[in-house]
Prior knowledge:
With 484 residues, the protein is an all-alpha fold. Helices cover 80% and strands 0% of the residues. The chain has one domain: MFS general substrate transporter like domains (Growth Hormone, Chain: A). The site of beta-D-glucopyranose has 10 residues, from helix 6 and helix 13. Beta-D-glucopyranose (BGC) binds next to helix 6 and helix 13.
Amino acid sequence: MNKGNAGLVVVLTFVATLGGLLFGYDTAVISGAVGAIDHYFIDPQHLSQTLASSLSGWTISSALLGCVLGSAAAGWLSIRLGRKGGLIVAALMFLLGSIGSAVPEFGLGVIGQMGPAALTPFICYRILGGMGVGIASMISPLYIAEIAPSEIRGRLISFNQLAIVVGILLVYFVNWFIQSLGTPAWYLSSAWRLMLASEAVPALLFLTLLMFVPDTPRWFVMRGRNEEALKQLTRVNGEAAARGILADIERTLKVRSEHLFAFGMPVLAIGILLSVFQQLVGINAVLYYAPLMFQNMGASTNSAFLQTVVVGAANLVFTFVAIATVDRLGRKPLLVVGSVLMAVAMFALGVLFSAKAVGFGALVAVVAYIAGFALSWGPVVWVLLAEMFPNSIKGKAMAIAVAAQWVANLFVSWSFKVMDGSPWLNMHFNHGFAYWIYGTMSVLSAIFVLRYVPETKGRTLESIQELWHKHRKDAALASVQAAE
Ligand code: BGC
């Protein structure tokens, strides 16, 4: 009898994680091009200092707006076009966004001569690429969750986080390499275009490989294509298990309507809060502004770059801890340990900044913070978001939670700059105020997990759905008892 095929799951997971790699690549590629972008699009406008820096800030972060839009649309896409179809749309957006932002003058004027006049198309292409990120950030983990056997589901989804981190580190080295190929004048005229265009390589690979993967069994059942679902389930889980899983999927899709609140508010609220807390603990303030932070600590530009690489490497290494333990220890213990580690590290950083004692100790605190995030909230939130929602509302509910995450991401990156630039806060906290906030958020995140998040380790997606049923019944019982 066919016993299933772990190799196939690994191959399919690999293809889906390219979406994660592009997520990391696209969000970080811009960091290498900032100087040249200012030089070409912003400086010739001779704006006031404030206007120029806010226009530059918007240009750099415009892709995040695309991420919000893309993730909000991803639920609909994943239902209408399928998980595979949604990922193909994302790959096309990565490709167009990358090439378009490298030569935004294309079809409009002479390349290299338009300057500020090409800023609007540049921003549009960045938003397009960001939409690819938003879509892939939701559908890649969803795809993996829906093809994975339950015993290794957490680990496989965590590989997507690994791919995000690899994407960030990879583009950092690609940018550094491209920059090293020519003179500073060449960097300003052409290198930045190559940096942005380099994303087309993984995008093309992603698009090509997607042509060969099937859609997920859960989506096939949603579309009434049960034969295909059974075939796919049999290839992955073996014949005996496949029939059982298929029956479960059919049952869970029939149980309730597709109405978003069919399972009550808590499931959606918990998903959104998990997603938002992943950002409120401040990860992207630390990642996006690591060089600035190290300079605030008094490091030279060069060693600030080196320390940024140390941060990236810590992010990578500690993601493996989650991969190794998430299916054995469970989701909740990892989240709580990570929150505690992040809280301690952030409070230590706050104290060190206030005491003007930044130096090696602060670097240790930052690395401890990154380690805490990488072994917990980084991967585990994606694991939970992809597995916690009941089948019939999964697409919509996950898209809402992920869109909320991107809004929170925008808010955190923007507000860090505001806090870091406030003379009053700096007088009292010496650039350390934000870290007190992130430490407090880490404490709140641990309390939230302990109180509200269910453990999903080892359960099939269908039996996770039963958890919310139970939740509802308990709540209904409690309200009846309260009324009596
Ligand atoms: C988060 C991103 C973050 C990345 C860094 C992801 O899980 O969603 O916002 O930049 O981890 O490792």
